[in-house]
Amino acid sequence: MSSQIPPDCVGVALVDDDAMALAHLESYFSGVEDLSVLLATRSTHEALRFVQSHQVDVLITDVHMENMDGVEMTREVLRSSPPTRVILLTTIDTDEDLLQGLGAGASGFLLKSAPAEEITSAVRTVHSGAKVVAPTPTTRLIDYALASVRGADGSVHLSERERDVLHLLCEGASNRKIASLLTIAEATVKSHITGLFHKTGTTSRLEMVVWAFKHGYASNSPFTIPSSSAPQQPDAGLEPQPLRAPQPRALMPGPVIRLQPVSIRMRKMMMMRTHPTTLIALVSEPEDGAGLRPDRREG
Predict the structure, then answer these.
(1) pLDDT (tens digit per residue) in 98-149
(2) Angle in degrees, CA 270, 276, 278, rounded to 5
(3) Quick check: 15 and 66 in contact, CB under 8 A?
(4) 203 Cβ partners below 8 Å, 6+ apart?
(5) Where are the beta strands (DSSP E) in the chain?
(6) What single-letter DSSP state applies at residue 91?
């Protein structure tokens, strides 16, 4: 690696906290004449310092890292060096990473499983000022773009599955309940809800439900969540019995406990700590000493 490159060569910096993944990524640029790796590091802080002091045309970074994720890394790089283009690499393709990454200013979003030719070609593309997104996320971006074109009444296009999820959200169902009723994974439910947040322009489940009722998406729900507290209906042909107030149950007196003569202070403490249904008989010793005492017997 060298920080000095020919004028017609694209300078690239690589960041990944996984040493094996970083070495594998660096090998993609071996022998590519118009692309030169200026830095390959596992440290996000080292990468930021390098970008501030060197001209980096394209920076490729992993999305999920311990010290600083790729989205935050993108923001910091563009704050320090606006001309630098950022490509995000990820092993997990999620809507949240895609939208947040592109929203932070990334010019590319690719999967780590992409072949070397696709990644090197993406570097040239983003360096020219265009953007690159892997084929699968591109399909979802098109769906989001179409969904963002709202009707005059504020309605949006929802898929059949998204409508099902939205109906159940309006019924107050949890993610787990929705997954059970629709026979899908709970992670899939979360993905649909993320898409609904984007399409409806809401930021919470409550706002989404209000939006659904306002635009007519909550009516005619095909789902009904069974209620465990619903009253049972009487059988046909049987006259309903009048409701009767429950009769209070009398408290049975507790056992009588005889204790040794104690002080007034001790009596109060014992009364406070004894079960309320237990009757305590505190006996004061008579002056003549003739009281009943279990531990005394006439000799």
Answers:
(1) 888 888 899 999 999 899 999 999 999 999 999 998 877 666 666 665 555 5
(2) 75
(3) no
(4) 197
(5) 10-15, 35-41, 58-62, 85-90, 108-111, 132-133, 256-259, 279-282
(6) S
- Residue in 13, 242, 256, 235 with CA at minimum distance from that of residue 127: 13
At residue 208, the pLDDT reads 86
Name the residue with tokens 């320090």: 80
C-alpha 141/C-alpha 159 separation (Å) is 14
- Chain segment 49-102, per-residue pLDDT in tens: 999 999 999 999 999 898 888 999 999 999 999 999 999 998 877 777 888 888
pLDDT at position 299: 42
End-to-end CA distance of the chain: 107
Give pLDDT, residue 41.
96
Residue-wise DSSP of 221-290: -S--PPPTTPPPPPPTT-PPPPP-PPPPPPPPP--EEEE----HHHHHHHHHHS-TT-EEEE-PPPTTS-
**pTM of the shown model:** 0.51
CB 176 within 8 Å of CB 186: yes
Our CA angle for 111, 117, 120, nearest 5°, is 80
State the Cα–Cα distance between residues 121 and 197, nearest whole angstrom: 33
